[in-house]
């Protein structure tokens, strides 16, 4: 089988969409589902492809925050080896990430297949866009300007982490957005917007790697061909590069402005796609 150029172009589009949307509060999975529906990039390979390019975006977190991740891992094991005499900060950070990951891990293991079969469609995504957008506005208005906001990621407590982890579970509904869900949980837990956003980046690593592992293990690799392999490589690299750029810009944006613009975009996009679905321009 020869190289399918049109398929590669579609893979490039999906990689760009993933990189643009993974770390801003608009739902990357929702956008991938909608984009895949529009450009007819669907099926078992497309589902696996989306998992791989999401890992490309996660790699951007590792690269951008390499020093923090490296130091935390070293301190985590130093704390254990020295029986608490050294590495307290890194150990506490690691424990927080573990605690924050537990709710999504439990629900994901129990309901992974059910969620995939019921919620991964255009209709649920459209509803998630609108509901998530409304929640983003309501929670930001109530909690964002908390005078007691935590402005240092190392000041987050295990209780804060658990609250945020519970909110992260909302992201299992495509369209709700993992970034938006964890940031909203961060606001409620008392985190400043930038700290909540950065914590959502770190919390994404175990959440996305764990979820992706389940999908990748189940995929039938006997169907792979040259086009598929090249699409995976290109999609992964593009999502990584775009996500790296977007993450930096996103944090700079949050230091100056609220997230209401993303909520308005979500609600507007949800309404537009609902109208398109109603008139049968897209399949709901």
UniProtKB/TrEMBL annotation:
Q: Which Pfam families match?
A: BacA (PF02673)
Membrane-spanning residues where?
7-25, 45-66, 87-111, 117-139, 186-208, 228-251, 263-282
Which HAMAP family does UniProt cross-reference here? Undec_diphosphatase (MF_01006)
Which family is this sequence assigned to?
A: Belongs to the UppP family.
- Please indicate which superkingdom the organism of origin belongs to: Bacteria
UniProt keyword annotation of Transmembrane helix present: yes
What Enzyme Commission number does this protein have? 3.6.1.27
Q: How does it sit in the membrane?
A: Multi-pass membrane protein
Q: Mind telling me what this protein is named? A: Undecaprenyl-diphosphatase
What else is noted?
A: Bacitracin is thought to be involved in the inhibition of peptidoglycan synthesis by sequestering undecaprenyl diphosphate, thereby reducing the pool of lipid carrier available.
Q: Which reaction does it catalyse?
A: di-trans,octa-cis-undecaprenyl diphosphate + H2O = di-trans,octa-cis-undecaprenyl phosphate + phosphate + H(+)
Please state where this protein is localized. Cell membrane
Q: Kind of enzyme, top EC level?
A: hydrolase
Q: What is its main location?
A: membrane
Query: What is the gene name?
Result: uppP2
Keywords, comma-separated and alphabetical: Antibiotic resistance, Cell membrane, Cell shape, Cell wall biogenesis/degradation, Hydrolase, Membrane, Peptidoglycan synthesis, Transmembrane, Transmembrane helix
Among NCBIfam families, the record links this protein to: PRK00281.1-2, PRK00281.1-4, undec_PP_bacA
Protein purpose: Catalyzes the dephosphorylation of undecaprenyl diphosphate (UPP). Confers resistance to bacitracin.
Q: Identify the InterPro entries for this entry.
A: UppP
């Amino acid at each position: 089988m020869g190289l399918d150029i049109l398929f590669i172009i579609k893979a490039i589009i999906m990689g760009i969409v993933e990189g643009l949307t993974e770390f801003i509060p608009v739902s990357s999975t929702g956008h991938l589902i909608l984009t895949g529906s529009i450009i007819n990039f669907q099926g078992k390979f497309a589902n696996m492809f989306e998992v791989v390019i999401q890992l490309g975006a996660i790699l951007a977190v590792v690269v951008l925050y390499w020093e923090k991740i490296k130091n935390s891992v070293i301190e985590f094991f130093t704390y254990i080896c020295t029986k608490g005499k050294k590495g307290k900060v890194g150990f506490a950070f690691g424990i927080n990430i573990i605690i924050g990951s537990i709710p999504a891990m439990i629900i994901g293991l129990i309901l992974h297949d059910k969620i995939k079969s019921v919620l991964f469609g255009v209709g649920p995504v459209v509803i998630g866009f609108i509901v998530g957008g409304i929640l983003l506005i309501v929670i930001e208005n109530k909690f964002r300007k908390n005078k007691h906001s935590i402005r240092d990621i190392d000041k987050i407590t295990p209780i804060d982490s658990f609250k945020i982890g519970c909110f992260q579970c909302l992201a299992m509904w495509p369209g709700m957005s993992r970034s938006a869900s964890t940031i909203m949980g961060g606001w409620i837990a008392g985190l400043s917007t930038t700290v909540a956003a950065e914590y959502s980046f770190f919390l994404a690593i175990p959440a996305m790697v764990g979820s992706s592992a389940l999908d990748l293990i189940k995929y039938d690799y006997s169907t792979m061909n040259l086009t598929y392999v090249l699409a995976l490589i290109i999609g992964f690299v593009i999502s990584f590069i775009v996500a790296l750029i977007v993450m930096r810009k996103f944090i700079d944006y949050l230091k100056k402005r609220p997230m209401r613009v993303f909520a308005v975009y979500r609600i507007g996009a949800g309404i537009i796609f609902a109208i398109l679905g109603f008139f049968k321009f897209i399949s709901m």
